[in-house]
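Hello K.,

You asked for the raw outputs rather than the summary table, so here they are, unedited. I folded two proteins back to back in the same session to keep the settings identical. This is the first:
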Amino acid sequence: MRAVVLHEHGGPEKLIVQSVPDPVPGESEVLVQLEAISINHLDLKIRRGTAGYPIALPRILGLEGAGRVVALGSGVTSVEVGQRVLVLPWKRCGECVWCRSGQENLCARSRILGIHADGCYAELVSAHVEQLLPLPNGIASEQAAAIPTAMGTAWHALHAVARVQPGESVLVMAATSGVGVALVQMAHQAGARVIAAGRDPSKLARLSEFGAETTVSYDDPQWIERVRQLTDGLGVDVVFEQVGGALLPAAVRSLRKQGRLVSYGASGGLSVAFEDWQFVYRNEFRILGATSCTREDVRQVLARVCVGELRAVVESRFPLVEASRAHQLLESRAHFGKVVLVPQ
């Protein structure tokens, strides 16, 4: 099969398209012929060597994808050859306190495709049967592939962590990203007033169709004051933040007293400096983390996408052999929504 293989860390040019042996499904594994593969920011970090995971090279990248089952390993009875499936990134241990309590996104023994095993940047992938969800015929593979990491994370952050309530005000940072567009939709459907933040005015303008009441630009030196003006001088109830770096302290200043900041990424940098930490505790802000999502989170999103309640926004598609170009686009932040690869 053809696959995109990382032999050494570096830029997009390190993604090498080559022929490799077809994977053979082992016990409890399933071989899936991929029809669409989602690209995520974690893929970029893996390629650069900054993901924070020990990764044995060479490695086929790719956290998730969608396609059809073409072979079954021993012991597999829950899926059939020919069945359409969504391939999830994570194989959780199923034994720890977090897995037993239904919070398996916190499992410390997760094995992730593209990190601990060869992933989905290929024509075929072998995955544990527990990493699969059946796909109904009403959803295209490209839309399905865009769901787990981006939309699953958004659902988990909004409903399990922030627990947004009707009538609350929500600020979504990096709102034109895959997770951001999903958060705008979900917060709107939860009954919140949504303010979308970003840099590109043309992309921000599109978010009104997904439920954003108004937008603000980081390039406006007064953007925090603008957020306060939009909330009667109080600030927002919730901020969803994935940039980190210098933007995180600014996001905190857009909160109302007792507001919640939910951080689910750090694409802008891991180091954060607060010049005035007492501003945080004197206003009783709550700083919350959200990591990944559960299988049930993905099920909830998939069900809503299938009936049209949510949209999986995919506007950038590349052939598998142009994975390096797809990485360049994601790094440029010129995309809107999700970027996917399509094997040919």
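The second followed immediately with the same parameters:
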Amino acid sequence: MMEAMPDKSVDCIFADPPYNLQLKDTLLRPDQTSVDAVDDEWDKFKSYKEYDSFTLKWLSQSKRLLKDGGALWVIGSYHNILRIGSKIQDLNMWILNDIIWQKTNPMPNFRGTRFTNAHETLLWCTTSRNSKYTFNYQNMKVFNEDKQMRSDWQIPICSGKERIRHKDNARAHPTQKPEALLYRVILSSTNVNDLILDPFLGSGTTAVVAKKLGRNFVGIEKDKNYFEIAKTRIKKTKTYEKDIIKIEKSRKHLPRIPFGELVEQGIIPPGAILSDKKNMFRAKVKVDGSIVSKNHQGSIHKVGASIQGLPSCNGWDYWHLHKENRILLIDEIRSDYRNKKT
């Protein structure tokens, strides 16, 4: 199926490939009941060499299908993620982050012979080292209560109503991923109407979340039972309303508005007084868009850094305009101007 798709046609790929767990014996709980572990044929490989060949095949197709700067997400465990990461680098793709999915409710190690496997690893990659990739930094910061989102995500495994089960209460899919995990992946690295491909669709979680968030999707699944489960889930899923899924873009994706433009338009006129939030430092705006504060003169960024004794400063976040007994952050003034302009 991947071979039939055109080059550079996909914005994001989320891959949850077989982990090659190599389970041989039946796992038993302390009460001697069997554990519903992953022992399906699709997770069995004769050797590491066979698994590596399989991995290289779908990764090569992934690189071909991704647009320049597209996102590749791969999830795995210690059984396979290091081998996959090596192949990604062999293909000259660039790993941006490894994300630790810390399971808040992991399955115990019933044999008591190893530490409990309480996490899985996601690799977030792009097509090359110099690619301009999508990262909705500001949105993820808001999502995380105005704090930078870290690379360790605490999310429970599927349970309760989210876990899909057959009529006999058996799990419909052994490795169903929680929607919350895909929510972060898709929200952070894609935009509305982007095309997301999941080459190992399984129970359909990627497609379900993509549909909710207004993204297009393609899912590939060779197991007919899983395919039907995914199809049923997708059919029941509704897309959130447009005004809900539309989110503010990060600054680097917005039309550039130089400080000088605000000056020439009279939005922040020559002679206007700027200050920091605590009003400790003040500066006057000059006709060319530079500012002067005592012996410091230059751009809003250069003067902001100089008076604080710092190597750099984002002047948009530092300076405030004194206007009619109010103090306004100049970045907010720029945002208002940009919205009216566009």
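Confidence is low (pLDDT under 50) at residues 26-30.

Happy to rerun anything if the numbers look odd on your end.

Regards,
P.
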